[in-house]
What does this fold into?
Amino acid sequence: MTEKKIQNTVRPPKFVHQEQWEGYTYKPWLKKDKKNVTVMFNFLERRKSYFLAAYFHRKKINFIDMGDHVKEDVTYGKLYGNRMECNPMYFTSGSMIRNLLKIEKETGLSKEEISKRYIFLCGGGQCGPCRYGMYPQEYLKVANEAGFKDFRVLIFSSDLGKVPGSKQHAFKFDLPFRINMGIALILADLMHAAECSLRAYAVNRKEAEAELDKADKMIRKAFESRLYLWTLPRMLKKIGKMFADIPLRDEQLPLIYVTGEFFANLAHNDGNYHLRRFITDEGCEVIPGSFTQRTLYDNWRRTVEAKRGIKYASDPEEIAFFEKSLKKQRTSTKVITYFYNKYVAALNPAAYRSRTELMDMDTLAELARKHYHPEIFGGEGNLEIAEAIHLAQEDAIDGFISSKPFGCMPSSGVSDGVQAKVLSMFPELNFLSIETSGDNDVSILSRVSMLLLKAKQRHAAKRNALTPMEQVVSAEAEAEDAVAKRGEQFA
It folds into this structure.
């Protein structure tokens, strides 16, 4: 084929940027429009959003709690978003579009009017080398592609919408909001911890789930009070006694630990196939995922960065900057730890076998240091490696699951890379790495089922006083027999 014919068969793109693209235009949300705008939000899973809504209720800010992520969100995220993103981005951006289209259908408002009257509040901008770090513009891209031109978003740790003169802003990520958000996240963690234990051990699971729903509403009511600093501890004491009265089975189930990438680990919904609930439904106990633990890690990471910055600062101004950051992180850690311990004491989780212990960040950093330097920041950093080593040394669990989004760069380097070394050191660790994509639940949960089968066999072997390696051999042999028998049944 001649060069002329080749040129005739090549189709140019429909749209070519003639100049450097500077991103989507953004109009800040100003005070004069405060009463005319409704805040839409959801954070990882339903309880965190549900409890945080108490803040907006108290402040008399119009809001929509978008609730849990659902599978449909991935479809919307892929339809309007860029290709080859991780499913946390597809879930969060897709949830935003799904709800905007729902508002359009239910209210009859035009897309232009909706863009003026609604704003999306979300996390992002702080997580590291990929994922949310590059996604503030992605939310705007998805909204604009769906027809909601000039739609606005509020993102933690992002410069979106900032204009000179902070007094002009209708909404600020100020100290009262941060404290309220921290409390909401802690409350959600503690209720999820209660759910993990009660679903596993309650004699009557339906009764336990009804009590959990009742407790959520009681907490929300107490948190909506302007005197929440006093009403919450009293209400939590009442809830702790309520949970302690739920009859529990007198046995110890196989214990499973789930960790991994932030969203894939802590979504507790379709975002990670309701993983922890699936594990308890299969007759095992699962250690609850903790947003508080991850927040303390972020504070620890920024503390280390600040100390290093002070050590190598080139001038007094730089020293002052890092000293301010160091003070901020230490204060944040003290406040979070104070509220967490206060609410744990009020609930008395030991009375209903709930696991609420937090790991020490310095200890975890030293455990992982030889295999993953704790100052390599990004994603979950050294956490997963340190957790695996700690739990393997203690022989405290029967199964260890690492959950990450499909193609997640930081998590893949850990769970598919460094963990190979950890497994060579602790071959008895019943380890499984899974990649979530939002739409392969049958494949993923079948693999989890195999890990749970081995966990149950290992748990039984422990009671028969087998050595760790004997447990592995026995569990693998029984698993192979089970697969063979299942194959014979299908044959």
The chain has 18 helices and eight strands.
